[in-house]
Amino acid sequence: MQSFARGLGVIRAFDAQHPELTLSEVARRADLTRAAARRFLLTLERLGYVSSDGRGFSLTPRVLELGFSYLSALSLPEVAQPHLERLSREFDESVSAAVLDGGEIVYVARVATRRIMSVGITIGTRFPAWSTSMGRVLLSDLPDAAVETLLDAAARDAPAPEPAALRAELDEVRARGWALVDQELEAGIRAVAAPVRGRHGRAVAAVNVSTSASRTTLSRMRTHFVPALLATARSVESDLRPFEVARME
Fold this sequence. Notes:
Layout: H1 2-12, E1 20-21, H2 23-29, H3 34-47, E2 50-52, E3 57-59, H4 64-74, H5 76-91, E4 94-101, E5 104-111, E6 126-128, H6 133-140, H7 144-154, H8 163-176, E7 179-182, E8 189-197, E9 203-212, H9 218-248
Antiparallel strand pairs: 1-3, 2-3, 4-5, 4-9, 5-6, 7-8, 8-9
Helix pairs in contact: 2-3, 5-9, 6-8
């Protein structure tokens, strides 16, 4: 199991900002010795998940197979996509859906109208949950004990949220049913998110609209974006419910 975990760590060393890495870079980012990193990379290369030009390494499209089963079983991306597209057309803004994985959100569906962040967002992109609108919506739906565990873990990261302030924010999000983040993940970016609830009432995902602070006021986000976003979330819930029931049968 330890070797399996380390192999996954090597794959996760690559991301949108680091699509190609040297052996030393992989070792550092995966917290491995150069010898161990080399063994994992050669194994992944033999399996077709990694390619090398002799100087650096990069992932191949075959790594998409690793997440395909999850996305297929989830049904959420396929169900949500047309709703995200309609909402995106309504405001001419980027719209996304994400799920919670530990203390991070993972993007599972997205409609991008323009690039407004310095970091490119694609399916599979991860961000700390506490710093995003979708993450706060999903965190607010967790039991208090689970939130405390995640806050303890976040407190060891830098930069870390102020626990008391974040708890208060999550209480507000829980009460109003949506989250608004103003230039916290990145300067100049605003986003509002709402939960997508499963048949038992728990949030199984979140959807959001992101925009530029120079283009959209906070007032407009609250009065125009929020109602449309909540309606979109309800529509996704309605279409997702038959898939949930089918899985139980």
